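Internal ticket - ligand job 349, manganese (II) ion:
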Amino acid sequence: MYSTFRWFGSDDPVSLEYIRQIPGVKDIVGSLFEIQVGEIWSVEAIGQLKQTVENAGLNLSVIESIPIHEDIKLGRGNRDHWIDNYCQSIQNMGAHNIPVLCYNFMPVFDWVRTDLAHPLEDGATVLEYDEDQLSKIDLSGGTPDMPAWVKYTATELKDLLTAYQKMGSEQLWGNLEYFLKRVIPVAEASGVKMAIHPDDPPWSVFGLPRIITNIEGLQRLVDTVDSPSNGITLCTGSLGASLKNDLVEAADVFGRQNRINFVHLRNIQHETSQRFIESPHPSEFGDLDMYQIMLKLSQHNYTGPMRPDHGRMIWGEEGTPGYGLYDRALGLMYLQGLWEAINKNNSLL
Ligand SMILES: [Mn+2]
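stdout (structure tokens):
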């Protein structure tokens, strides 16, 4: 396993120069944010991003993510056009030897939180999700301002929500399987490992179907196309938002099959089954046992990228919710310490 750090591009208040000063970080998780959803990521555009990262003494090792056009998720008539574009983007990644692509198949919205700066008693703020607050998010004016969400106008959003209301989970599965059968062979030939990110939170929101929510769903995905390029992002915080998901088991099940292609490590603390905060990374502050999760990754010889996922906002830092420098760096140092101890203990056995 090697440490990576997410970087949101030249507008990110956390600069590549700062990231380079975090011990053990040589690899960047990057993306291109100016490309319209569905359009091809050109060799030139990817090359520019890669060059910027390399100029700072780092490598571009993961793309997170190339968004999937809603026509693909909806199975609309022109989906083949968008899938062709997606395949071309993957080939262009491969041309630059970028080995991992994190993506998700969540209808309309990316991750959802109801409070981006929930105060803790120590003065830090964290992201919070409270199912009871979800209905207060106003969708009538188009996409509300949430990090990582694609912006839709009021009319576009209304049309999309209506289109999905007619769709059940099985139909969404069919559309995902159609996509994978086209895309995975291209990824494999291009030397790119795909890593689906679990739905966050892993249950239906705003009446939209969500299917990548548990071990069974991830296994169905993995079984759809038998290829090392058809893998998962083990995001502990996303899957762990549901108390039904056992993350140690997930690390074991998919580590054993060599289908973990990317790892996001963070912890969460539940107040109720559908109300939680994103707590500091160490096991003692949340509901997830980071030691046991990493132990499974070590036992299955996971050698791929890992990044510390969302952190708190501390020490007066301002920036992208969940993506400040300080707490993600603190979390990463803890995770690297665990990893060193686990691997040294293993070598003594
Ligand atoms: Mn994640």
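Auto-summary: The longest helix spans residues 326-348. The CA atoms of residues 35 and 200 lie 23 Å apart.
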